[in-house]
From TrEMBL:
Domain of life: Eukaryota
Domain VWFA: 1-133
Gene that this sequence comes from: Col20a1
SUPFAM superfamilies documented for this protein: Fibronectin type III, vWA-like
InterPro entries: ECM_Assembly_Org, FN3_dom, FN3_sf, Ig-like_fold, VWF_A, vWFA_dom_sf
Keywords from the UniProt entry: Extracellular matrix, Secreted
Protein name, UniProt field: COKA1 protein
Keyword Nucleotide-binding (UniProt): no
Coiled-coil segments: none
Amino acid sequence: GLSQYSSDPRTEWDLSTYSTREQVLEAIRNLRYKGGNTFTGLALTHVLEQNLKPDAGARLEAEKLVILLTDGKSQDDANLAAQTLKNLGIEIFAIGVKNADEAELKQVASEPLELTVYNVLDFPLLSSLVGKLTRVLCTRVNEKSNKETSGSTVKDFPVKTGPQLSPTDLKISAVTSKSMNLTWSPPLRPPKKYRVVYYPSKGGIPREVVLDGAVSSLRLSNLTSHTEYLVSVLPVYDTVVGDGLRGITSTLPLSSPRSLRVSELSHNSIRLSWKTAQGATHYLVLCSAAPDGAED
């Protein structure tokens, strides 16, 4: 399976989309590069919520490996998202190109770092990693599979749904130009914490709030006016992540001054009056000469 990301992650194909090597290579040849920002944390969350689910082709008995390829430093908290995946037994391999931050690669990747972190100076040099990385990946899968067949406990990727572990009924209310309220019904078993991620649907910096599991409401503030926001509420337990809630809504436009009136005209002045705009702290008044040759 493959996803590309900038400010908004995009699934290119699921784990179950292709069944042969030739089909995958053809899909790669037809792949269009997605430019833009570098929100690695949001991308890792997307992989967890969208790509590593049974309906996307993830098999419960299979080892879960994520290979991150990035050419820049993340503009959000990649470490927190990566830790969530690693806590669920998902191994992360981090590959940096050009301007990638090596310290961040080491934070995101699983141990041992000498096998999971790679960095090259330019994209053509990635070909030099293919052989080694293939051997490392296959060896890791074999090691884990052998442990499982020999009776050792191997952590399955937990996909938990239903009222036991998943909240329901996300409601968005009290929407203003700068804020909105979120409420939801908690699952039967309260989580350890909630991760609430929100960001503009047309691209922008994702923000995240971590709440105690006993809380089931949040007021988002300092939002941008007249903007559509995507919101995700993800319940996190000690060893599993429940199904998240998702919602979308738009903040209101800023209020405008009304009832503009002109009075007290003279040869070089006019007086303006208007009804105030709620929440405004200043007004900018622009004045220009009328068209059709009028004097300035």
